[in-house]
Design a protein that fits this description.
The chain has about 425 residues and is mostly beta strands. It is built from 3 helices and 31 strands. The strands form 7 sheets. Strands 1, 2, 3, 4, 7 and 8 form a 6-stranded antiparallel β-sheet that branches. A 5-stranded antiparallel β-sheet has the order 19-20-25-29-28, with no helix packed on it. It has a 4-stranded antiparallel β-sheet with strand order 6-5-9-10, with no helix packed on it. A hairpin with a 4-residue loop joins strand 26 and strand 27. The longest helix has 14 residues.
């Protein structure tokens, strides 16, 4: 009896060894308490409301004792990139139960008051008696002990909580170079001439680099476009970073535009396509090898509203005044059958739908077109899912026929190290306030 009572006391003490909540909590006007239950960092993510000690002890306990000492909530996952995952719980004291809030959006706020946008989060993962929402942060303030997470419910109610920083210093020290800075690759010189910052009232900063490209001493900037991301010494990569970092790396990938010339083997030309009427489509079943890749042309769509499922049109209707341009795509599996890909598209411009396997980025594909009068342009990427890509063709009016060119290209990566632009006035906001 003494041994049994002692064992119960030991187990009761160990039950208290659950992982402490590392972050703060806040209460919505509805009374629901939002709490930071934990944060993980890396590409493999293991989150549990139990401590490491409890998990280790449960692994060696006999099965009959595990029933007396149940495990807490645990989730495992992976991310393609090195990200932080923040786990939020929501407890309703009136219902005396955990609930799943209808989140509208999230923002990270650093100590300078700059806002870092959050692009993705997962719906609540439920467990009997507990649920948690997972927020993915590819970029966040990494130099301070913690940062603010602003969580907004659909309808406008919001709370702010402190999240502990899962990244530890020291970080490397970089040296900036003066602008303009240039890099020469083959016969092309790529110049970063300037980097401008914009500081709107909502504190969602934005940054615009200015480039120039020279080939054999001739300015050919209109023949190139750059896709730019910024990297800081703490490991963040994003279109928006903290301007109070001492140095950024400007990472640009240069692609050719519709004004450039291309080798014949990189171009698939489809001439004389009849332009369909408003709300209709011309469907193709053509595949061509372009730059050693298989490109499948699915269809040319006129202005209107369309719904596709696995390349089959389910519905289409003409474009009408008052319609709002939109696009959405999804893929799902039913039992053990092949995946079902659904695409919906509403636009006042014509569009091209095609399929390419193993394309790293839609920026690699250039859609170039010219109408019967010789007016031309470049397609704009609208949506993509399961190797399918939709490009709109802007500025086409009164078109009867179209020459279409599909061009595949590899980017030229160029990197510069610069001191980021800083706002003239910005009030520091401590993370613990």
């Amino acid at each position: 009896m003494v041994t049994g009572a002692l064992l119960i006391l030991v187990l009761a003490g160990l039950w208290m060894l659950r992982s402490p909540a590392p972050g703060s909590s806040a209460v919505l006007p509805s009374g629901v308490r939002i709490k930071v239950e934990g944060v993980t960092f890396g590409t493999r993510h293991l989150f549990s409301t139990d401590s490491k000690l409890k998990r280790a002890l449960r692994s060696v306990l006999p099965a009959r004792l595990k029933d007396w000492w149940p495990a807490g909530y645990t989730s495992e996952g992976r991310t393609d990139e090195t990200n932080a995952l923040v786990y939020l719980s929501a407890f309703d004291p009136i219902k005396r139960a955990y609930v799943s809030p209808n989140w509208d959006h999230f923002q990270v706020l650093d100590k300078h008051g700059c806002a870092w946008p959050v692009q993705s989060w997962a719906g609540s993962q439920s467990d009997p008696g507990f649920s948690v929402s997972t927020i993915c942060l590819p970029a966040f303030p990494r130099r301070d002990p913690g940062f603010k997470l602003r969580a907004v419910i659909l309808g406008g109610d919001a709370v702010e909580m402190v999240v502990p920083n899962p990244v530890k210093s020291p970080f490397p020290k970089w040296t900036p170079e003066p602008l303009p800075a240039s890099r020469t690759i083959d016969n092309a010189t790529f110049e970063l001439r300037d980097l401008q910052g914009h500081w709107p009232a909502d504190r969602l900063n934005s940054f615009d680099p200015t480039y120039r490209v020279l080939q054999d001493g001739v300015d050919v900037t209109p023949q190139w476009r750059a896709v730019t991301e910024f990297r800081d010494a703490t490991g963040n990569v994003s279109e928006r970073l903290c301007p109070y970092e001492p140095v950024w790396k400007v990472e640009a990938k240069f692609f050719r535009t519709a004004q450039a010339t291309f080798a014949a083997e990189k171009v698939w030309r489809i001439p004389g396509i009849r332009m369909p009427e408003n709300g209709h489509a011309v469907m193709f079943n053509q595949t061509h090898q372009v730059a050693n890749r298989s490109v499948h042309l699915i269809g040319l769509l006129a202005a209107g509203s369309f719904k596709f499922s696995n390349n089959v049109i389910l519905a289409m209707s003409p474009w009408q005044s008052g319609m709002s341009p939109a696009s959405s795509s999804s893929t799902r599996s039913v039992n053990s059958g092949p995946p079902i890909t659904t695409l919906e598209f509403v636009s006042r411009d014509p569009a091209v739908l095609l399929s390419i396997t193993s394309l790293r980025s839609p920026d690699q594909l250039l859609v170039r077109y010219r109408d019967q009068s010789g007016r031309g342009g470049q397609g704009e990427f609208r949506s993509g899912v399961a190797d399918q890509y939709l490009f709109s063709l802007p500025n086409l009016r009164n078109v009867t026929s179209l020459d279409l060119e599909l061009i595949l290209q590899e980017p030229i990566p160029v990197e510069f190290s610069v001191a980021p632009p800083r706002p003239t006035e910005r009030v520091a906001v401590p993370a613990d306030k």
